[in-house]
Amino acid sequence: MSKRVLVVCLCATIAAVFVHCGGGSSPTTNPTPRPPVAATPTPAPTLAPLSCDPTPPPLYGVKVNVHINQGYRKTLDSKPQVVNLDGYCQRVGVPGKDFCFTRVEDDPQREDCDRMAMGVADDSQRYGPQWYYEGLPCAGGGDQPGCNNHPDNQFLVIAKGSGVFEACASMDAPVAQDRCGRCSVIESSGECQ
């Protein structure tokens, strides 16, 4: 067989394979559409299980105070107070007639009990209150008056300047009295007004 015939046969075979595999411009050849790639959702942070027995009753309110005073910049602290339901305060050894803190300060369950009473903040997805400045969620703002969530503890907030700061329990937390605690800060004062 001559080289010319061999080349023609080989070219015809390649062309037939090309057309058969969809490489031609045949009107009946349409590529199969591929489904769009779905974005992988960002997983919510995993919250540690809580250990608090007996569990705290509904929230009575939130006590907010100045924890660290650096003049213009202050660190505010929040502590949930719960209703003294069925003698809860006496059962856990905390003074209180109508309401009390979830545990005494050095109780190993105090942090978990506070977390149960407050729930999870919407903005940080951490246990603790949602913080507000002048009715708006804390959003930073550099050196401008306002607030930033504390980097390590949602029960604390970095407050700057004067104004009304609030710490509010989650909408999922059971509340008997008031969901939020307030602190009116006067820059020159070291206390909540």
Which structural class is indicated by helix and strand composition?
alpha+beta
Based on DSSP secondary structure assignment, what is the total number of beta strands?
9
Q: List low-confidence stretches.
A: 2-31
Overall, the morphology is globular
Distance between the termini: 105 Å
Give the rounded overall mean pLDDT.
Answer: 82
Assign a percent range to the helix content.
10-25%
* Continuous helix count: 3
Q: What percentage of the residues does DSSP assign to strands (E)?
A: 25-35%
Element order: H for helix, E for strand: HEEHEHEEEEEE
Radius of gyration: 32 Å
The largest pleated sheet is described as: 5 strands, antiparallel
Topology:
Elements: H1 3-20, E1 59-70, E2 73-83, H2 88-91, E3 99-101, H3 110-118, E4 130-133, E5 136-137, E6 146-149, E7 156-160, E8 163-168, E9 180-185
Antiparallel strand pairs: 1-2, 2-3, 2-7, 4-5, 4-8, 6-7, 8-9
Concise synopsis of the structure shown:
With 193 residues, the chain is α+β, with helices and mostly antiparallel strands. It has helices at 3-20, 88-91, 110-118; strands spanning 59-70, 73-83, 99-101, 130-133, 136-137, 146-149, 156-160, 163-168, 180-185. 30% of the residues are buried.
Give structural notes.
The protein is α+β, with helices and mostly antiparallel strands. The protein has a domain at 59-185. The protein is 16% helix and 27% strand. The protein has three helices and nine strands. It has helices spanning 3-20, 88-91, 110-118, and strands spanning 59-70, 73-83, 99-101, 130-133, 136-137, 146-149, 156-160, 163-168, 180-185. Strands 1, 2, 3, 6 and 7 form a five-stranded antiparallel sheet that branches. Strands 5-4-8-9 form a four-stranded antiparallel sheet, with no helix packed on it. The model is unreliable at 2-31 (pLDDT under 50).
